[in-house]
Automatic annotation (TrEMBL):
Cofactor dependence: [4Fe-4S] cluster
Lineage, broadest ranks: Bacteria, Pseudomonadati, Pseudomonadota, Gammaproteobacteria, Chromatiales
A Pfam family this chain is assigned to: UPF0004
Positions of the TRAM domain: 373-439
Biological function: Catalyzes the methylthiolation of an aspartic acid residue of ribosomal protein uS12.
Cofactor remark: Binds 2 [4Fe-4S] clusters. One cluster is coordinated with 3 cysteines and an exchangeable S-adenosyl-L-methionine.
GO biological process entries: tRNA modification
HAMAP family listed in its UniProt record: MTTase_RimO
Name by which UniProt lists this protein: Ribosomal protein uS12 methylthiotransferase RimO
Amino acid sequence: MPNSGKNIGFVSLGCPKNLVDSERILSRLRAEGYDLIGSYEEADLVIVNTCGFIDSAVEESLEAIGEALQENGKVIVTGCLGKDESRIRTAYPKVLAVTGPHAYEEVVEAVHDQIPAPHDPFTSLLPPEGIKLTPRHYAYLKISEGCNHSCSFCIIPDLRGSLVSRPFGDVMLEAERLVESGVRELLVVSQDTSAYGVDLKYRPDFWQGRPVSSKLKDLAAAMGELQAWVRMHYVYPYPHVDDLIPLMADGHILPYLDMPLQHGNLRVLKQMRRPAATEKVLSRIARWRRSCPELTLRSTFIVGFPGETEAEFEDLLAFLQEAQLDRVGCFAYSPVDGAAANQLPGALPLEVREERQARFMQVQAEISRQRLQAKVGREMVVLIDEVNQKQLIARSSADAPEIDGRVFIPGGWELEPGDFIKVKITAATAHDLQAEPIEVEETEVD
Ligand code: SF4
């Protein structure tokens, strides 16, 4: 495509929350008639949406800016790293504009300054669902920005500010539009999903003519009425999370919680300044599983935190054995520029942090393997992600896209990505499942 004076290149880095920001910026630009272009040469300018979470993400972001400048020359920087404008300007004085995270308006204004908005009624038509960077059948839905906590290893509140929840009606309108446009799975994301509505003081609202309050439970219940799977990410174990479990047990939302627990020892959790750091997590997990045996729990942990003793690390391993989580990620602690944890005494050598990470993963791998193995012989509904001649690649309620496992089904069926089918699980590997279809007609989702 020749340079038309309205072609925008876009590089999106970082987490799903950043991806949602990218989608919003692109939706807005597309609505105004700009085109999204996949090459530096043909773009009239390039937007780089950066991540500043850990040092390696900062490096990756700086490299992406450098590459875009070298290949195209006109670059606007946004996202978490954009908060540190002087660092970017020092490295790359030629960038056109720098904005912080979720600054959609400022990014669009910076684009206008460089390339006035085209006025062509045929190209200005915005698909009602906006522009998505995920496959057509699933979408991330961000319900709030920022975070009110101050975990000592994290600089997100400095980068993204305090919690700002989106109004209930706004979120539901976006959810409805996504489902109407063919999305079959909504992935609910934010920095702290359980805190939804705290800043709104849980204010009353109306949805479909009935009163609701701006609380996660009401929001989840309303989303559960749409014809799509609803999957909850970044849910901290506050007491009111208990209210979500009946919605999961009844099939309103997926029986899946992505709950970053970070550690299993109370002293370390206190040093981490984690929200909801109580010894009651294990008993609550047991209670949730009694009410909703289908519940899948995913979590992430940090090992080798400053001052973590061998005994505290072993507490964490014992916690894992008791919690029997389904899916787990583990990071060896690494200092993040500007994080309070850098001042804590007792920094551990890299070998110790990495050795603990390896031991952790060994323990958890066996737990995850056994939990997957227990699914062999069961029947379940899966969502098709990919179809090729050899096989269908799908996911069950236990599998979030990109981070969890997949369900492989022999090919030869007239099905498409976004279809639901019922399958019987025939085998399990360390991460994935194999299955045979038992109902090849598309299955209705609740
Ligand atoms: S809850 Fe903690 S780790 Fe999560 S964004 Fe807030 S400060 Fe960071």
